[in-house]
Design a protein that fits this description.
By secondary structure, the protein is of the alpha+beta class. It folds into 2 domains: 8-48 and 170-320, Roll (T-fold); 65-158, T-fold (Orthogonal Bundle). It is built from 8 helices and 16 strands. Strand 7 and strand 8 (198-202) form a beta hairpin. Helix 2 (49-66) runs antiparallel to helix 7 and helix 7 packs across helix 8 (279-302). It starts with 7 loop residues before the first strand and ends in a 6-residue tail after the last strand.
Length: 326
C-alpha cells in the first residue's frame, strides 16, 4: 500500500540562520524515481555527493529484492512459485516475518496477501478507474489470508497457490532504515531521507535544532500542511486516503483495502501519521492504525513504547496520542 506524500519543511532555513555570517557548506540533495515514487536524500554535513549515490544504490538493491512487479525479485519469485517453497534473502525473509506480525496484531485488518485485490482495483494505473464488480472481488477474497504464508529460515511458501504477497505497506520504511544505516556507517551526522512520504532523519540540522515536518492537509493543494512536528533522529510516516483514489457515483474509493470485504476501508479516517524511532515500525503502524480505526488504532499506539500518532478524521479533527509532541 503506497504511503501518502507529505511536506518537508525546514523552517527558517538559510545560510545565515544555520551557519552565521561565515561561509559554510550548503546541503547537497539528489532526487530520483524509485519504489514507484519520487524520493530525495539531503545531506547537511558533507558535500560528498558519492554518499548520496551510495544511498541510492542501497535503495535500488532493496527495490530489486522487494518489488512484486520486478521480474526476478524475491517477492516476484514467491508470487510466481505456484506454491513451491522459494528460497529468498535473509533480509526478505525477516521483513516478511515482520509484516506478518502486523497482520497478527490487527487480526488480519492488514494482510500481506492483498496483491490480487490490489491488482484488480489498479490504483497505480494511469487508466480511468472504476469500481470492480462484486463477483470479481468475491472471486479473489478466498485467496486473501496471511496465514497461508509460511516462513522457515530463508524459505517462503504460499500454501494457497493463488495467493500473492505485497509488502507495499512496509517496504519503504524498511528501505529507509537501510539507507540510514548506510549513511551512518559513512559518518553522516545530519541528513533527511524522504522516500515518497516516509521521512527519516539523521541527527539534527547543522545548528542543532530539530527538523520540522509538515503533514499534508487532506485533499488540499500540495505543500499545504494541517499540522507539523519537530523531530530529531527519528521517523515520520503517514497513511491516508487522498493520494490514490477516485470517485464514482458520488463515492470516494481509496487504495487502503479491507481484506475482509475487498473494498476500501470506510471508517471516517482521512489519515494517520506515526512518529517512531524506525521507519519500518512507522510504516507498519501507519497502515495498521488506519485499518483498525481511531479507537482501536489509538489503543494500539498507547500500548507501544516510543511511538506516537495523530489521526485525522473526516471532519478534519486531529486526534493526538498522549505523548505526541505539540
Amino acid at each position: 500500500m503506497k504511503k501518502i506524500n507529505f511536506i518537508l519543511f525546514l523552517l527558517c532555513f538559510s545560510n545565515i540562520f544555520l551557519y552565521g555570517c561565515t561561509k559554510k557548506m550548503e546541503p547537497v540533495t539528489k532526487t530520483g524515481f524509485y519504489l514507484n515514487t519520487v524520493i530525495s536524500i539531503t545531506l547537511y554535513d558533507t558535500t560528498d555527493t558519492s554518499l548520496i549515490d551510495g544511498a541510492f544504490a542501497v535503495c535500488d538493491s532493496y527495490e530489486k529484492l522487494l518489488s512484486r512487479t520486478l521480474e526476478g525479485s524475491d517477492i516476484w519469485n514467491i508470487n510466481h512459485s505456484n506454491g513451491t517453497p522459494t528460497t529468498v534473502s535473509a533480509e526478505t525473509a525477516d521483513l516478511i516475518q515482520t509484516a506478518l506480525t502486523y497482520c497478527d496484531i490487527t487480526d488480519g485488518s492488514v494482510d500481506i496477501t492483498l496483491a490480487p485485490l490490489s491488482d484488480l482495483w489498479d490504483f497505480s494505473s494511469d487508466k480511468p478507474k472504476k469500481v470492480p464488480a462484486d463477483y470479481e472481488i468475491n472471486a479473489l477474497l478466498p485467496n486473501v489470508d496471511y496465514r497461508t504464508v509460511q516462513v522457515q529460515d530463508n524459505v517462503v511458501t504460499l500454501t494457497n497457490k493463488k495467493a500473492a504477497i505485497d509488502l507495499g505497506f512496509i517496504a519503504k520504511g524498511f528501505i529507509a532504515d537501510k539507507i540510514k544505516s548506510y549513511l551512518l556507517e559513512q559518518g553522516v551526522t545530519s541528513a533527511v531521507i524522504n522516500l515518497g512520504g516516509n521521512v527519516l532523519t539523521i541527527g539534527n540540522k547543522p545548528d542543532q535544532t530539530h527538523f520540522t515536518i509538515g503533514i499534508q492537509k487532506p485533499f488540499d493543494d500540495r505543500n499545504t500542511s494541517i499540522t507539523q512536528v519537530s523531530i530529531s533522529d527519528s521517523s515520520v510516516v503517514s497513511s491516508g486516503v487522498y493520494e490514490r483514489y477516485f470517485e464514482q457515483g458520488g463515492m470516494l474509493y481509496h487504495h487502503i483495502l479491507n481484506p475482509a470485504t475487498g473494498y476500501p476501508y470506510n471508517n471516517h479516517l482521512l489519515g494517520v501519521t506515526i512518529l517512531s524511532n524506525t521507519s519500518t515500525e512507522g510504516d507498519g503502524l501507519s497502515t495498521s492504525c488506519f485499518a483498525l480505526g481511531l479507537e482501536k488504532g489509538m489503543t494500539l499506539i498507547e500500548s507501544l513504547p516510543n511511538v506516537e500518532a495523530v489521526f485525522i478524521t473526516d471532519d478534519y479533527t486531529l486526534h493526538y496520542s498522549s505523548g505526541y509532541p505539540k
